[in-house]
Write a structure and sequence with these properties.
- The chain has 192 residues and is an all-alpha fold.
- 58% of the residues lie in helices and 0% in strands.
- The chain has ten helices and no strands.
Length: 192
């Protein structure tokens, strides 16, 4: 929490440590509660998608909430602090770093990080980035552990280079350069 009156008070607090004015604001928040009368998780997920303030979800947003092994693998990798930092720099702050090619489904708020990671995993398996239909099939299928490990290692390797030397972000002029780096690194690793 950041207090506008006193920014030095930013941090984590227990409810009883908060000023009474903030406690009152919290107490007056209206929360919608839905009671679920089904055990079909797919129906629940469809309902969550439908309630998304009327804005249609893209394929990546739908894929990322499915209870599938690939979804868990991709989401876990995207949540890694350094990988999350990298995508924040490239997808949220692209103008600041002069990176072009961030548009449409590649914006981070549209799960662009998940889309890129999905495409890279698909590339690891099939040698190309795949269409939306092919990515859907990958999420519904099984991926060999060896492919997952190779994919994760290459992504972490590249992202760690950028994290270690953040000046390199200024050299990444196009978002597609990240994919190109992934391809080159995979070729070098696979040759050994």
């Amino acid at each position: 929490i950041t207090f506008t009156e006193d920014p030095k008070k930013s941090g984590s607090y227990y409810y009883d440590e908060l000023p009474s004015k903030v406690q009152d604001q919290i107490d007056n928040i209206i929360v919608q509660v839905d009671i679920i009368h089904t055990v079909d998780i797919e129906k629940v997920l469809d309902r969550v998608v439908a309630m998304n303030e009327g804005e249609p979800w893209n394929n990546t947003e739908r894929r990322s909430i499915r209870f599938k092994p690939v979804s868990f693998i991709i989401n876990k990798l995207a949540a890694d602090p350094i990988i999350s930092w990298f995508f924040k720099q490239t997808l949220d702050k692209q103008k600041e770093h002069g990176i072009k090619g961030v548009q449409g489904d590649y914006f981070r708020y549209k799960k662009g990080d998940i889309l890129i990671l999905s495409e890279l995993l698909y590339y690891t398996i099939n040698g190309h980035f795949g269409s939306a239909r092919q990515l859907d099939a990958m999420y519904n299928g099984k991926v060999e552990d060896e492919k997952i490990q190779s994919f994760e290692e290459v992504v972490k390797f590249i992202v760690n280079i950028f994290h270690t030397n953040q000046e390199l972000l200024k050299e990444m002029k196009l978002l597609s350069m990240f994919k190109d780096l992934f391809i080159c690194t995979k070729i070098l690793i696979d040759e050994n």
